[in-house]
Amino acid sequence: MSSKKSAAARANARARRKSLRLHGTIARDLGVLIVSGRYKPGDILNGEIDASDRLQVSRTAYREAVRILAAKGLVESRPKVGTRVSPQARWHMLDPDVLSWIFEFEPDDTLLANLFELRKIVEPEAAALAALRRSDEELEAMEKALEGMATHTLASEAGRLADQEFHSAMLRASGNAFIVSLTSGVGAAVSWTTIFKQRHNPLRRDPIPDHQKVYEAVKASDPKAAHAAMLNLVELAQLDTVNSRKPKPAKTATSARG
Amino acid sequence: MSSKKSAAARANARARRKSLRLHGTIARDLGVLIVSGRYKPGDILNGEIDASDRLQVSRTAYREAVRILAAKGLVESRPKVGTRVSPQARWHMLDPDVLSWIFEFEPDDTLLANLFELRKIVEPEAAALAALRRSDEELEAMEKALEGMATHTLASEAGRLADQEFHSAMLRASGNAFIVSLTSGVGAAVSWTTIFKQRHNPLRRDPIPDHQKVYEAVKASDPKAAHAAMLNLVELAQLDTVNSRKPKPAKTATSARG
DNA sequence: TTACCATAAATTGTCTGAGTTATATGAATT
DNA sequence: AATTCATATAACTCAGACAATTTATGGTAA
Protein backbone atom coordinates (compact mmCIF):
# COMPACT_ATOMS: atom_id res chain seq x y z
CA MET A 1 0.00 0.00 0.00
CA SER A 2 2.47 2.59 1.18
CA SER A 3 4.95 1.62 -1.52
CA LYS A 4 2.26 2.04 -4.13
CA LYS A 5 1.39 5.48 -2.88
CA SER A 6 4.97 6.66 -2.79
CA ALA A 7 5.54 5.49 -6.31
CA ALA A 8 2.45 7.28 -7.52
CA ALA A 9 3.51 10.44 -5.71
CA ARG A 10 6.94 10.35 -7.29
CA ALA A 11 5.55 9.79 -10.77
CA ASN A 12 3.09 12.58 -10.23
CA ALA A 13 5.84 14.95 -9.24
CA ARG A 14 7.68 14.21 -12.45
CA ALA A 15 4.51 14.57 -14.46
CA ARG A 16 3.52 17.91 -13.05
CA ARG A 17 5.58 19.78 -15.59
CA LYS A 18 3.65 20.20 -18.82
CA SER A 19 0.70 18.10 -17.60
CA LEU A 20 2.15 14.95 -19.07
CA ARG A 21 0.59 11.66 -18.17
CA LEU A 22 2.65 8.93 -16.64
CA HIS A 23 3.24 7.15 -19.93
CA GLY A 24 4.22 10.49 -21.42
CA THR A 25 6.86 11.17 -18.82
CA ILE A 26 8.26 7.68 -19.19
CA ALA A 27 8.40 8.08 -22.96
CA ARG A 28 10.12 11.43 -22.58
CA ASP A 29 12.65 10.10 -20.10
CA LEU A 30 13.50 7.09 -22.23
CA GLY A 31 13.45 9.21 -25.36
CA VAL A 32 15.96 11.63 -23.92
CA LEU A 33 18.19 8.75 -22.88
CA ILE A 34 18.09 7.44 -26.43
CA VAL A 35 18.61 10.65 -28.42
CA SER A 36 21.34 11.74 -26.01
CA GLY A 37 23.24 8.54 -26.66
CA ARG A 38 22.91 7.00 -23.23
CA TYR A 39 21.16 4.09 -24.91
CA LYS A 40 22.79 3.32 -28.22
CA PRO A 41 21.30 1.82 -31.38
CA GLY A 42 21.21 -1.95 -31.06
CA ASP A 43 20.91 -1.85 -27.27
CA ILE A 44 18.11 -3.91 -25.82
CA LEU A 45 15.99 -2.21 -23.20
CA ASN A 46 15.16 -4.13 -20.06
CA GLY A 47 12.20 -6.44 -20.34
CA GLU A 48 8.80 -5.00 -19.55
CA ILE A 49 8.64 -6.57 -16.12
CA ASP A 50 12.12 -5.50 -15.07
CA ALA A 51 11.75 -2.01 -16.47
CA SER A 52 8.33 -1.34 -14.99
CA ASP A 53 9.54 -2.74 -11.68
CA ARG A 54 12.52 -0.41 -11.65
CA LEU A 55 10.48 2.63 -12.58
CA GLN A 56 7.85 1.58 -10.04
CA VAL A 57 5.09 1.81 -12.60
CA SER A 58 2.69 -0.70 -14.05
CA ARG A 59 3.47 -2.68 -17.14
CA THR A 60 0.57 -0.88 -18.83
CA ALA A 61 2.13 2.55 -18.43
CA TYR A 62 5.56 1.34 -19.48
CA ARG A 63 4.19 -0.43 -22.53
CA GLU A 64 2.30 2.66 -23.67
CA ALA A 65 5.52 4.63 -23.35
CA VAL A 66 7.30 2.10 -25.55
CA ARG A 67 4.48 2.33 -28.10
CA ILE A 68 5.09 6.08 -28.26
CA LEU A 69 8.82 5.61 -28.79
CA ALA A 70 8.18 2.98 -31.44
CA ALA A 71 5.74 5.32 -33.20
CA LYS A 72 8.57 7.84 -33.46
CA GLY A 73 11.01 5.31 -34.84
CA LEU A 74 13.29 5.27 -31.83
CA VAL A 75 12.77 1.64 -30.86
CA GLU A 76 11.37 -1.57 -32.24
CA SER A 77 10.12 -4.45 -30.16
CA ARG A 78 9.59 -8.09 -31.00
CA PRO A 79 8.59 -11.10 -28.95
CA LYS A 80 11.41 -13.20 -27.59
CA VAL A 81 13.90 -10.50 -28.65
CA GLY A 82 12.91 -7.48 -26.65
CA THR A 83 12.77 -3.78 -27.37
CA ARG A 84 15.85 -2.59 -29.16
CA VAL A 85 17.00 0.92 -29.99
CA SER A 86 16.75 1.53 -33.74
CA PRO A 87 19.60 2.90 -35.85
CA GLN A 88 19.58 6.68 -36.01
CA ALA A 89 18.63 6.67 -39.67
CA ARG A 90 15.19 5.36 -38.67
CA TRP A 91 14.53 8.02 -36.06
CA HIS A 92 11.89 10.55 -36.96
CA MET A 93 14.23 13.49 -36.50
CA LEU A 94 11.60 16.05 -37.45
CA ASP A 95 9.04 14.75 -34.98
CA PRO A 96 8.32 17.61 -32.56
CA ASP A 97 8.88 15.45 -29.50
CA VAL A 98 12.07 13.89 -30.80
CA LEU A 99 13.36 17.37 -31.58
CA SER A 100 12.46 18.69 -28.16
CA TRP A 101 14.17 15.71 -26.56
CA ILE A 102 17.26 16.41 -28.64
CA PHE A 103 17.22 20.02 -27.54
CA GLU A 104 16.60 19.10 -23.93
CA PHE A 105 20.35 19.31 -23.45
CA GLU A 106 22.85 21.31 -25.43
CA PRO A 107 22.64 19.63 -28.80
CA ASP A 108 25.44 18.25 -30.86
CA ASP A 109 27.24 20.82 -33.05
CA THR A 110 26.79 18.79 -36.19
CA LEU A 111 23.12 18.28 -35.56
CA LEU A 112 22.55 21.97 -35.01
CA ALA A 113 24.41 22.74 -38.22
CA ASN A 114 22.29 20.19 -40.04
CA LEU A 115 19.10 21.75 -38.77
CA PHE A 116 20.17 25.18 -39.96
CA GLU A 117 21.17 23.66 -43.26
CA LEU A 118 17.66 22.35 -43.73
CA ARG A 119 16.20 25.67 -42.65
CA LYS A 120 18.33 27.49 -45.22
CA ILE A 121 16.99 25.15 -47.86
CA VAL A 122 13.32 25.18 -46.95
CA GLU A 123 12.51 28.51 -45.35
CA PRO A 124 13.58 30.77 -48.22
CA GLU A 125 11.52 28.70 -50.63
CA ALA A 126 8.63 28.76 -48.17
CA ALA A 127 8.90 32.54 -48.05
CA ALA A 128 8.85 32.67 -51.84
CA LEU A 129 5.74 30.50 -51.90
CA ALA A 130 4.20 32.66 -49.20
CA ALA A 131 4.76 35.72 -51.36
CA LEU A 132 2.64 34.07 -54.03
CA ARG A 133 -0.02 32.47 -51.89
CA ARG A 134 -0.35 34.29 -48.58
CA SER A 135 -3.83 35.13 -47.39
CA ASP A 136 -4.63 38.35 -45.59
CA GLU A 137 -4.99 36.59 -42.25
CA GLU A 138 -1.53 35.09 -42.52
CA LEU A 139 -0.07 38.43 -43.47
CA GLU A 140 -1.77 39.88 -40.44
CA ALA A 141 -0.34 37.15 -38.25
CA MET A 142 3.15 38.05 -39.43
CA GLU A 143 2.54 41.70 -38.70
CA LYS A 144 1.30 40.88 -35.22
CA ALA A 145 4.37 38.76 -34.63
CA LEU A 146 6.61 41.61 -35.69
CA GLU A 147 4.84 43.92 -33.26
CA GLY A 148 5.31 41.32 -30.55
CA MET A 149 9.04 41.22 -31.26
CA ALA A 150 9.18 44.99 -31.05
CA THR A 151 7.23 45.49 -27.85
CA HIS A 152 8.85 42.69 -25.88
CA THR A 153 12.56 42.24 -25.41
CA LEU A 154 14.01 39.56 -27.63
CA ALA A 155 15.32 37.46 -24.84
CA SER A 156 11.99 37.33 -23.03
CA GLU A 157 9.61 34.44 -23.35
CA ALA A 158 7.10 36.60 -25.19
CA GLY A 159 9.73 37.84 -27.59
CA ARG A 160 10.91 34.37 -28.39
CA LEU A 161 7.35 33.20 -28.98
CA ALA A 162 6.75 36.14 -31.31
CA ASP A 163 9.85 35.19 -33.29
CA GLN A 164 8.66 31.61 -33.53
CA GLU A 165 5.21 32.75 -34.54
CA PHE A 166 6.64 34.86 -37.34
CA HIS A 167 8.40 31.89 -38.85
CA SER A 168 5.41 29.65 -38.19
CA ALA A 169 3.05 32.03 -39.95
CA MET A 170 5.46 32.14 -42.86
CA LEU A 171 5.41 28.37 -43.22
CA ARG A 172 1.62 28.31 -42.93
CA ALA A 173 1.42 30.95 -45.64
CA SER A 174 3.39 28.69 -47.96
CA GLY A 175 0.18 26.75 -48.36
CA ASN A 176 2.04 23.46 -48.33
CA ALA A 177 0.94 20.96 -45.68
CA PHE A 178 4.31 19.22 -45.63
CA ILE A 179 6.20 22.45 -45.20
CA VAL A 180 3.83 23.42 -42.41
CA SER A 181 4.69 20.21 -40.61
CA LEU A 182 8.29 21.42 -40.40
CA THR A 183 7.17 24.19 -38.07
CA SER A 184 8.31 22.41 -34.94
CA GLY A 185 11.78 21.98 -36.33
CA VAL A 186 12.07 25.63 -37.18
CA GLY A 187 10.60 26.56 -33.83
CA ALA A 188 13.11 24.44 -31.97
CA ALA A 189 15.97 26.09 -33.82
CA VAL A 190 14.58 29.57 -33.28
CA SER A 191 14.06 28.90 -29.62
CA TRP A 192 17.51 27.46 -29.20
CA THR A 193 19.08 30.34 -31.08
CA THR A 194 17.52 32.85 -28.71
CA ILE A 195 18.49 30.91 -25.63
CA PHE A 196 22.01 30.40 -26.88
CA LYS A 197 22.46 33.99 -27.96
CA GLN A 198 21.23 35.23 -24.63
CA ARG A 199 23.72 33.01 -22.87
CA HIS A 200 26.85 33.41 -25.00
CA ASN A 201 26.50 36.25 -27.42
CA PRO A 202 23.96 38.79 -26.27
CA LEU A 203 22.41 41.33 -28.58
CA ARG A 204 24.69 41.28 -31.54
CA ARG A 205 22.32 43.36 -33.61
CA ASP A 206 18.66 44.21 -33.91
CA PRO A 207 17.00 41.36 -35.81
CA ILE A 208 13.71 43.13 -36.38
CA PRO A 209 14.68 44.98 -39.58
CA ASP A 210 15.76 41.69 -41.11
CA HIS A 211 12.39 40.16 -40.29
CA GLN A 212 10.70 43.27 -41.62
CA LYS A 213 12.38 42.84 -44.98
CA VAL A 214 10.93 39.37 -45.40
CA TYR A 215 7.53 40.61 -44.39
CA GLU A 216 7.65 43.48 -46.85
CA ALA A 217 8.63 41.20 -49.71
CA VAL A 218 5.83 38.77 -48.91
CA LYS A 219 3.36 41.62 -48.64
CA ALA A 220 4.54 42.94 -51.99
CA SER A 221 4.12 39.47 -53.52
CA ASP A 222 7.78 39.46 -54.52
CA PRO A 223 8.98 35.85 -54.23
CA LYS A 224 12.53 36.60 -55.32
CA ALA A 225 13.02 39.27 -52.66
CA ALA A 226 11.29 37.12 -50.04
CA HIS A 227 13.65 34.25 -50.83
CA ALA A 228 16.72 36.43 -50.49
CA ALA A 229 15.56 38.16 -47.33
CA MET A 230 14.64 34.92 -45.60
CA LEU A 231 17.93 33.30 -46.53
CA ASN A 232 19.71 36.25 -45.04
CA LEU A 233 17.62 36.02 -41.90
CA VAL A 234 18.36 32.34 -41.31
CA GLU A 235 22.04 32.83 -42.03
CA LEU A 236 22.24 35.56 -39.42
CA ALA A 237 20.49 33.35 -36.91
CA GLN A 238 22.97 30.60 -37.61
CA LEU A 239 25.85 32.98 -37.08
CA ASP A 240 24.55 33.57 -33.58
CA THR A 241 24.93 29.90 -32.71
CA VAL A 242 27.01 27.53 -34.74
CA ASN A 243 29.85 29.67 -35.96
CA SER A 244 30.34 31.42 -32.67
CA ARG A 245 30.90 28.07 -31.07
CA LYS A 246 33.06 26.37 -33.64
CA PRO A 247 34.53 28.64 -36.30
CA LYS A 248 35.08 25.91 -38.89
CA PRO A 249 34.06 27.11 -42.35
CA ALA A 250 32.02 24.08 -43.43
CA LYS A 251 31.40 23.31 -47.05
CA THR A 252 27.91 24.36 -48.07
CA ALA A 253 25.73 23.75 -51.08
CA THR A 254 24.76 27.35 -51.55
CA SER A 255 27.59 27.65 -53.99
CA ALA A 256 25.54 25.47 -56.27
CA ARG A 257 22.79 28.01 -56.49
CA GLY A 258 22.42 30.83 -58.97
CA MET B 1 -15.96 -17.86 -25.30
CA SER B 2 -16.80 -18.41 -28.93
CA SER B 3 -17.24 -14.69 -29.51
CA LYS B 4 -13.82 -14.10 -28.03
CA LYS B 5 -12.24 -16.64 -30.32
CA SER B 6 -13.92 -15.30 -33.43
CA ALA B 7 -12.83 -11.80 -32.58
CA ALA B 8 -9.26 -12.95 -32.07
CA ALA B 9 -9.34 -14.85 -35.32
CA ARG B 10 -10.63 -11.84 -37.22
CA ALA B 11 -8.03 -9.55 -35.72
CA ASN B 12 -5.37 -12.07 -36.50
CA ALA B 13 -6.43 -12.24 -40.11
CA ARG B 14 -6.17 -8.49 -40.40
CA ALA B 15 -2.81 -8.49 -38.70
CA ARG B 16 -1.24 -11.12 -40.87
CA ARG B 17 -0.30 -8.62 -43.52
CA LYS B 18 2.98 -6.95 -42.63
CA SER B 19 3.22 -8.76 -39.26
CA LEU B 20 1.47 -5.93 -37.49
CA ARG B 21 0.31 -6.51 -33.97
CA LEU B 22 -3.27 -5.93 -33.02
CA HIS B 23 -2.62 -2.43 -31.70
CA GLY B 24 -0.77 -1.69 -34.93
CA THR B 25 -3.67 -2.72 -37.13
CA ILE B 26 -6.10 -0.70 -35.04
CA ALA B 27 -3.83 2.33 -35.25
CA ARG B 28 -3.53 1.90 -38.98
CA ASP B 29 -7.28 1.49 -39.45
CA LEU B 30 -8.10 4.54 -37.36
CA GLY B 31 -5.24 6.47 -38.91
CA VAL B 32 -6.54 5.83 -42.41
CA LEU B 33 -10.03 6.89 -41.35
CA ILE B 34 -8.58 10.14 -40.05
CA VAL B 35 -6.23 11.10 -42.88
CA SER B 36 -8.85 10.14 -45.44
CA GLY B 37 -11.30 12.54 -43.85
CA ARG B 38 -13.82 9.99 -42.58
CA TYR B 39 -13.12 11.36 -39.11
CA LYS B 40 -12.70 15.12 -39.23
CA PRO B 41 -10.63 17.41 -37.00
CA GLY B 42 -12.62 18.18 -33.87
CA ASP B 43 -14.52 14.91 -33.96
CA ILE B 44 -14.50 12.94 -30.75
CA LEU B 45 -13.74 9.27 -31.05
CA ASN B 46 -15.91 6.85 -29.14
CA GLY B 47 -14.84 6.28 -25.56
CA GLU B 48 -12.41 3.50 -24.82
CA ILE B 49 -15.09 1.11 -23.66
CA ASP B 50 -17.44 1.69 -26.56
CA ALA B 51 -14.68 1.66 -29.15
CA SER B 52 -12.96 -1.45 -27.86
CA ASP B 53 -16.33 -3.17 -27.59
CA ARG B 54 -17.18 -2.35 -31.16
CA LEU B 55 -13.83 -3.47 -32.48
CA GLN B 56 -14.06 -6.57 -30.29
CA VAL B 57 -10.68 -5.93 -28.78
CA SER B 58 -9.48 -5.21 -25.29
CA ARG B 59 -9.18 -1.70 -23.99
CA THR B 60 -5.44 -2.30 -23.69
CA ALA B 61 -5.00 -2.86 -27.41
CA TYR B 62 -7.25 0.06 -28.28
CA ARG B 63 -5.46 2.39 -25.88
CA GLU B 64 -2.06 1.49 -27.30
CA ALA B 65 -3.41 2.24 -30.75
CA VAL B 66 -4.55 5.65 -29.57
CA ARG B 67 -1.12 6.27 -28.05
CA ILE B 68 0.41 5.64 -31.48
CA LEU B 69 -1.99 8.05 -33.17
CA ALA B 70 -1.35 10.67 -30.49
CA ALA B 71 2.39 10.24 -30.95
CA LYS B 72 1.92 11.11 -34.62
CA GLY B 73 -0.15 14.18 -33.85
CA LEU B 74 -3.39 12.82 -35.29
CA VAL B 75 -5.38 12.85 -32.05
CA GLU B 76 -5.21 14.23 -28.56
CA SER B 77 -6.98 12.74 -25.60
CA ARG B 78 -7.90 14.25 -22.27
CA PRO B 79 -9.90 12.99 -19.32
CA LYS B 80 -13.54 13.98 -19.26
CA VAL B 81 -13.30 15.16 -22.85
CA GLY B 82 -12.31 12.11 -24.82
CA THR B 83 -10.02 11.56 -27.76
CA ARG B 84 -10.47 14.19 -30.40
CA VAL B 85 -9.02 14.40 -33.88
CA SER B 86 -6.44 17.18 -34.06
CA PRO B 87 -6.45 19.92 -36.69
CA GLN B 88 -4.48 18.94 -39.78
CA ALA B 89 -1.79 21.49 -39.05
CA ARG B 90 -0.71 19.36 -36.06
CA TRP B 91 -0.47 16.12 -37.99
CA HIS B 92 3.05 14.83 -38.54
CA MET B 93 2.66 14.75 -42.29
CA LEU B 94 6.19 13.49 -42.86
CA ASP B 95 5.86 10.58 -40.46
CA PRO B 96 6.36 7.41 -42.52
CA ASP B 97 3.19 5.80 -41.21
CA VAL B 98 1.05 8.89 -41.69
CA LEU B 99 2.36 9.15 -45.23
CA SER B 100 1.67 5.52 -45.97
CA TRP B 101 -1.85 5.90 -44.58
CA ILE B 102 -2.38 8.93 -46.82
CA PHE B 103 -1.21 6.93 -49.81
CA GLU B 104 -3.29 3.93 -48.86
CA PHE B 105 -5.94 5.31 -51.18
CA GLU B 106 -5.46 7.55 -54.17
CA PRO B 107 -4.27 10.71 -52.46
CA ASP B 108 -5.63 14.18 -52.82
CA ASP B 109 -4.32 16.10 -55.84
CA THR B 110 -3.25 19.07 -53.78
CA LEU B 111 -1.41 16.92 -51.29
CA LEU B 112 0.44 15.11 -54.03
CA ALA B 113 1.41 18.43 -55.58
CA ASN B 114 2.59 19.64 -52.18
CA LEU B 115 4.75 16.59 -51.74
CA PHE B 116 6.40 17.08 -55.10
CA GLU B 117 6.85 20.74 -54.28
CA LEU B 118 8.82 19.79 -51.19
CA ARG B 119 10.79 17.22 -53.15
CA LYS B 120 11.72 19.84 -55.73
CA ILE B 121 12.97 22.04 -52.92
CA VAL B 122 14.90 19.50 -50.92
CA GLU B 123 16.16 16.82 -53.26
CA PRO B 124 18.18 19.05 -55.60
CA GLU B 125 19.90 20.62 -52.61
CA ALA B 126 20.45 17.18 -51.14
CA ALA B 127 22.06 16.10 -54.40
CA ALA B 128 24.30 19.16 -54.29
CA LEU B 129 25.33 18.32 -50.76
CA ALA B 130 25.89 14.73 -51.79
CA ALA B 131 28.24 15.89 -54.52
CA LEU B 132 30.35 17.52 -51.83
CA ARG B 133 30.15 14.93 -49.10
CA ARG B 134 29.38 11.53 -50.58
CA SER B 135 31.39 8.61 -49.36
CA ASP B 136 32.50 5.79 -51.62
CA GLU B 137 29.97 3.39 -50.13
CA GLU B 138 27.10 5.73 -50.84
CA LEU B 139 28.30 6.24 -54.38
CA GLU B 140 28.44 2.48 -54.73
CA ALA B 141 24.90 2.18 -53.41
CA MET B 142 23.69 4.60 -56.06
CA GLU B 143 25.47 2.64 -58.76
CA LYS B 144 23.92 -0.61 -57.54
CA ALA B 145 20.51 1.03 -57.55
CA LEU B 146 21.03 2.17 -61.12
CA GLU B 147 21.96 -1.36 -62.12
CA GLY B 148 18.83 -2.60 -60.38
CA MET B 149 16.72 -0.19 -62.37
CA ALA B 150 18.37 -1.38 -65.56
CA THR B 151 18.07 -5.12 -65.00
CA HIS B 152 14.51 -5.12 -63.72
CA THR B 153 11.56 -3.59 -65.48
CA LEU B 154 10.56 -0.27 -64.00
CA ALA B 155 7.06 -1.31 -63.13
CA SER B 156 8.20 -4.38 -61.22
CA GLU B 157 8.53 -4.44 -57.47
CA ALA B 158 12.30 -4.77 -57.75
CA GLY B 159 12.52 -1.89 -60.16
CA ARG B 160 10.50 0.36 -57.92
CA LEU B 161 12.63 -0.55 -54.93
CA ALA B 162 15.77 0.22 -56.91
CA ASP B 163 14.38 3.64 -57.80
CA GLN B 164 13.55 4.32 -54.16
CA GLU B 165 16.97 3.13 -53.09
CA PHE B 166 18.64 5.51 -55.52
CA HIS B 167 16.88 8.48 -53.99
CA SER B 168 17.38 7.14 -50.49
CA ALA B 169 21.11 6.74 -51.03
CA MET B 170 21.22 10.28 -52.35
CA LEU B 171 19.60 11.65 -49.21
CA ARG B 172 21.94 9.57 -47.03
CA ALA B 173 24.89 10.94 -48.96
CA SER B 174 23.80 14.47 -48.10
CA GLY B 175 25.21 13.79 -44.66
CA ASN B 176 22.34 15.61 -43.03
CA ALA B 177 20.36 13.62 -40.48
CA PHE B 178 17.24 15.73 -40.96
CA ILE B 179 17.31 15.37 -44.69
CA VAL B 180 17.78 11.64 -44.27
CA SER B 181 14.63 11.51 -42.22
CA LEU B 182 12.71 12.74 -45.25
CA THR B 183 13.49 9.47 -47.00
CA SER B 184 10.09 7.96 -46.33
CA GLY B 185 8.36 10.93 -47.89
CA VAL B 186 10.43 10.70 -51.01
CA GLY B 187 9.96 6.96 -51.08
CA ALA B 188 6.21 7.28 -50.87
CA ALA B 189 6.17 9.71 -53.75
CA VAL B 190 8.49 7.58 -55.85
CA SER B 191 6.43 4.50 -55.17
CA TRP B 192 3.20 6.24 -55.96
CA THR B 193 4.64 7.71 -59.14
CA THR B 194 5.56 4.28 -60.42
CA ILE B 195 2.24 2.76 -59.50
CA PHE B 196 0.34 5.62 -61.01
CA LYS B 197 2.40 5.68 -64.17
CA GLN B 198 1.95 1.99 -64.64
CA ARG B 199 -1.79 2.40 -64.32
CA HIS B 200 -2.46 5.53 -66.32
CA ASN B 201 0.51 6.52 -68.37
CA PRO B 202 2.80 3.60 -69.04
CA LEU B 203 6.36 4.01 -70.19
CA ARG B 204 6.49 7.58 -71.31
CA ARG B 205 10.28 7.54 -71.56
CA ASP B 206 13.29 5.79 -70.16
CA PRO B 207 14.06 7.39 -66.80
CA ILE B 208 17.44 5.76 -66.36
CA PRO B 209 19.50 8.33 -68.30
CA ASP B 210 18.04 11.08 -66.12
CA HIS B 211 19.08 9.22 -63.02
CA GLN B 212 22.46 8.57 -64.54
CA LYS B 213 23.06 12.28 -64.99
CA VAL B 214 22.56 12.93 -61.29
CA TYR B 215 24.86 10.08 -60.43
CA GLU B 216 27.58 11.33 -62.75
CA ALA B 217 27.42 14.82 -61.28
CA VAL B 218 27.64 13.50 -57.75
CA LYS B 219 30.51 11.24 -58.71
CA ALA B 220 32.29 14.20 -60.32
CA SER B 221 31.72 16.28 -57.15
CA ASP B 222 29.86 18.88 -59.17
CA PRO B 223 27.13 20.27 -56.89
CA LYS B 224 25.75 22.67 -59.46
CA ALA B 225 25.24 19.96 -62.06
CA ALA B 226 23.85 17.59 -59.43
CA HIS B 227 21.34 20.20 -58.37
CA ALA B 228 20.16 20.78 -61.91
CA ALA B 229 20.00 17.12 -62.83
CA MET B 230 18.03 16.20 -59.72
CA LEU B 231 15.59 19.03 -60.21
CA ASN B 232 15.00 17.81 -63.72
CA LEU B 233 14.50 14.27 -62.48
CA VAL B 234 11.89 15.21 -59.92
CA GLU B 235 10.07 17.45 -62.36
CA LEU B 236 9.83 14.60 -64.84
CA ALA B 237 8.48 12.33 -62.14
CA GLN B 238 5.86 14.90 -61.25
CA LEU B 239 4.82 15.16 -64.87
CA ASP B 240 4.00 11.47 -64.77
CA THR B 241 1.47 12.01 -62.00
CA VAL B 242 0.06 15.39 -61.15
CA ASN B 243 -0.10 17.10 -64.49
CA SER B 244 -1.40 14.10 -66.33
CA ARG B 245 -4.32 14.04 -63.93
CA LYS B 246 -5.18 17.69 -63.67
CA PRO B 247 -3.45 19.96 -66.16
CA LYS B 248 -3.75 23.10 -64.08
CA PRO B 249 -0.55 25.15 -64.33
CA ALA B 250 -0.07 25.95 -60.66
CA LYS B 251 2.00 28.88 -59.54
CA THR B 252 5.41 27.75 -58.45
CA ALA B 253 8.28 29.33 -56.59
CA THR B 254 10.94 28.21 -59.02
CA SER B 255 10.56 31.53 -60.77
CA ALA B 256 12.19 33.04 -57.71
CA ARG B 257 15.36 31.13 -58.25
CA GLY B 258 18.38 32.19 -60.26
C1' DT C 1 28.78 -34.26 -40.35
C1' DT C 2 24.85 -31.88 -42.00
C1' DA C 3 20.10 -30.83 -42.58
C1' DC C 4 15.79 -30.85 -40.88
C1' DC C 5 12.10 -30.93 -37.51
C1' DA C 6 9.88 -30.90 -33.07
C1' DT C 7 10.11 -28.94 -28.64
C1' DA C 8 11.10 -25.56 -25.02
C1' DA C 9 12.02 -21.05 -23.24
C1' DA C 10 11.78 -16.17 -23.18
C1' DT C 11 9.60 -12.03 -24.32
C1' DT C 12 6.18 -9.23 -26.01
C1' DG C 13 1.21 -9.18 -26.84
C1' DT C 14 -3.65 -9.38 -25.25
C1' DC C 15 -7.31 -9.69 -22.01
C1' DT C 16 -10.14 -8.55 -17.82
C1' DG C 17 -11.83 -5.93 -13.97
C1' DA C 18 -10.97 -2.89 -10.59
C1' DG C 19 -9.70 1.53 -8.70
C1' DT C 20 -7.67 6.50 -9.49
C1' DT C 21 -7.18 11.00 -11.36
C1' DA C 22 -8.09 15.00 -14.09
C1' DT C 23 -11.39 18.13 -16.02
C1' DA C 24 -15.67 20.23 -17.83
C1' DT C 25 -20.06 21.38 -16.14
C1' DG C 26 -23.23 23.43 -13.36
C1' DA C 27 -24.79 24.64 -8.79
C1' DA C 28 -24.08 27.10 -4.62
C1' DT C 29 -21.93 30.93 -2.38
C1' DT C 30 -19.96 35.30 -1.73
C1' DA D 1 -20.94 38.94 -11.43
C1' DA D 2 -17.31 36.41 -9.92
C1' DT D 3 -15.71 32.59 -7.15
C1' DT D 4 -15.82 28.40 -5.00
C1' DC D 5 -17.33 23.79 -4.71
C1' DA D 6 -19.67 19.32 -5.86
C1' DT D 7 -20.37 15.97 -9.36
C1' DA D 8 -20.20 13.21 -13.39
C1' DT D 9 -17.41 11.45 -17.01
C1' DA D 10 -13.78 10.16 -19.47
C1' DA D 11 -9.12 8.83 -19.68
C1' DC D 12 -5.49 6.95 -16.74
C1' DT D 13 -3.20 3.48 -13.87
C1' DC D 14 -2.84 -0.80 -11.70
C1' DA D 15 -2.49 -6.03 -11.03
C1' DG D 16 -2.44 -10.61 -12.61
C1' DA D 17 -3.44 -13.94 -15.79
C1' DC D 18 -3.10 -16.11 -20.28
C1' DA D 19 -1.95 -16.20 -25.40
C1' DA D 20 1.07 -15.69 -29.35
C1' DT D 21 5.43 -15.41 -31.48
C1' DT D 22 10.08 -15.94 -32.25
C1' DT D 23 14.50 -17.69 -31.17
C1' DA D 24 17.27 -21.30 -29.31
C1' DT D 25 17.94 -26.17 -28.36
C1' DG D 26 18.39 -30.76 -28.99
C1' DG D 27 17.27 -34.85 -31.29
C1' DT D 28 16.57 -37.55 -35.48
C1' DA D 29 17.40 -38.85 -40.12
C1' DA D 30 20.02 -38.56 -44.39
Please give a structural write-up.
Two copies of one chain form a homodimer. Chain A is mostly helical. Chain A folds into two domains: 2-90, Orthogonal Bundle (Arc Repressor Mutant, subunit A), CATH 1.10.10.10; 106-256, GntR ligand-binding domain-like (Four Helix Bundle (Hemerythrin (Met), subunit A), Up-down Bundle). Helices cover 66% and strands 3% of the residues of chain A. Chain A has twelve helices and two strands, in the order H-H-H-H-E-E-H-H-H-H-H-H-H-H. Chain A has helices at 2-15, 22-35, 48-55, 59-71, 96-102, 109-133, 136-151, 157-173, 177-180, 183-200, 208-219, 223-245, and strands at residues 75-78, 82-85. Chain A has a two-stranded antiparallel ribbon with strand order 1-2. In chain A, a hairpin with a 3-residue loop joins strand 1 (75-78) and strand 2. In chain A, helix 7 runs antiparallel to helix 8 and helix 11 packs antiparallel against helix 12. Chain A starts with a helix and ends in a 13-residue tail after the last helix. The model of chain A is unreliable at 1-17 and 253-258 (pLDDT under 50). Chains A and B meet through helix 4, helix 6, helix 9 and helix 12 of A and helix 4, helix 6, helix 9 and helix 12 of B. The structure holds a DNA duplex (30 and 30 nucleotides).
